[in-house]
Amino acid sequence: IDLELPEKAEREEEVEEGMCKALEDIRAMGIEEGEALGEARGKAQSIIEFAKELDWSTEQILQRLQDKLHISPEEAKEYLNRYQ
Fold this sequence. Notes:
Layout: H1 4-53, H2 58-69, H3 73-83
Helix pairs in contact: 1-2, 1-3, 2-3
């Protein structure tokens, strides 16, 4: 009779539980990142639409995006190109 089998099975179960937990954590992080990205896109679109209604210049819009969303000039340009 091999007395190591129950111990080995317990270790395998612990490893499996750890892997499941890790996958759940990764999934949760992905959801959070997706929600944050969606929120930022929505804010950017609103800023751009509002600024266009006020006839703001491109430079003013870019600066506003950077200030409100705490993003780089390159990211602000990407949003402007997407929602203009």
